Amino acid sequence: xxxxxxxxxxxxxxxxxxxxxxxxxxxxxxxxxxxxxxxxxxxxxxxxxxxxxxxxxxxxxxxxxxxxxxxxxxxxxxxxxxxxxxxxxxxxxxxxxxxxxxxxxxxxxxxxxxxxxxxxxxxxxxxxxxxxxxxxxxxxxxxxxxxxxxxxxxxxxxxxxxxxxxxxxxxxxxxxxxxxxxxxxxxxxxxxxxxxxxxxxxxxxxxxxxxxxxxxxxxxxxxxxxxxxxxxxxxxxxxxxxxxxxxxxxxxxxxxxxxxxxxxxxxxxxxxxxxxxxxxxxxxxxxxxxxxxxxxxxxxxxxxxxxxxxxxxxxxxxxxxxxxxxxxxxxxxxxxxxxxxxxxxxxxxxxxxxxxxxxxxxxxxxxxxxxxxxxxxxxxxxxxxxxxxxxxxxxxxxxxxxxxxxxxxxxxxxxxxxxxxxxxxxxxxxxxxxxxxxxxxxxxxxxxxxxxxxxxxxxxxxxxxxxxxxxxxxxxxxxxxxxxxxxxxxxxxxxxxxxxxxxxxxxxxxxxxxxxxxxxxxxxxxxxxxxxxxxxxxxxxxxxxxxxxxxxxx
Length: 554
Hints:
Oligomer: single chain
Strand order of the largest sheet: 2-3-1-4-6-17-20
Shape: elongated
Low-confidence stretches: 1-5, 473-554
Helix content: 10-25%
Strand content: 15-25%
Radius of gyration: 23 Å
Structural class: alpha/beta
């Protein structure tokens, strides 16, 4: 007996008016190949399986009731450890937007593994690759091996789409200031970083963390070449804010790797098992390392920690989504779009903010001036229905689970890109720069007019993108639309509250998440950050804590 459950369709299909685009322009992604890179495809049988999704029409394959009989080509399955089949949820979204597209999947476990996966999928003929994976040890200030692989794929004609991340602005970034004040821990003498950018000196960044709560993983980096750092910096969480009395007993957590000739990277996690909520971040440069960085930064890949004295409000969109060849996608709730009653789309506060400068070229040489890329590129819907992934939201009137975060937003853009390619003439008809320009040139401003590092060029609209493609010729040499795509305004909508007058505001400004929404929001968040240094064994087997989860919005 086979249980043929009801099909789940992404509300993003309507929010982006992709349903209208398919009907008006007779496109379904025919002849276009889309590959997903994520955690796993069909490893977790707890809710449903890929076979169930085929029979309900949520995935293509033999038995699909709508005639889309080409199954997903799984080049490599993900690990059984912590597998949540997030990749299959992404493929469901793509199938909703571009149902005739041919689909592929590849699981990954490390930066090296992902760089190889991108090359493999490019060679396998993928027209579009979309991922929702990030690694806490990807460089902030330099294009690492994954970003370089993305750029190579884009140069080969692959449209590369990447989830921007769900870390909002949970980051500290500043120039390194040697305070001249020293301290010694575990027999190692340090010179402390000065957090105070003014006339004073303060070597402690005070913050609060509730008892029982976790901070991190916190990735701390500085602007020196990966694989060849000249300076050695360490980071501490301490309970005492007096350097003169500081001792090992005051250190609650620390990361003190030997960085010389290695990566300018320290990874730190801290669980507050005390009754206190008052702590301090202390950064020290070992006195025996001669080099001093110009720039330092840490990103907190976790929602806990509050009231940081010296900032927790810097860019967090890093690594391969920040590559020049990637289309980085931020997230907004489908509720906050014109088709669902909100004339001005509003970006989630959890969606990662762009603006991290690139100081070094791939070889580690310093650039003449920092390169700041306009990221994210666009935003797309999340909070949408799948057959199994996420947690059912109180903001819709069905029982399907809702997929939150930029992991859900990115496959929507991949689907629209497939519709564009088919409309333009098929595989290879548009290069990645042209696809990006069309998506951005027809996007709807989100919250602010023009580009910003929260929403990029704005909210992707499938029908407007296809209308722009049809009405404006593309210069085959420059890849530019001539003339520029006009702004295509949607029909006017009233600002109609969805699910109560405060519901959407709470989703946009969830800091902290209200208790009545906590269960609805937090457990539905995607994974996406992988611990480094995993064993190389078949089928990407890894330790239980391979996936690091973003625990909350904002």
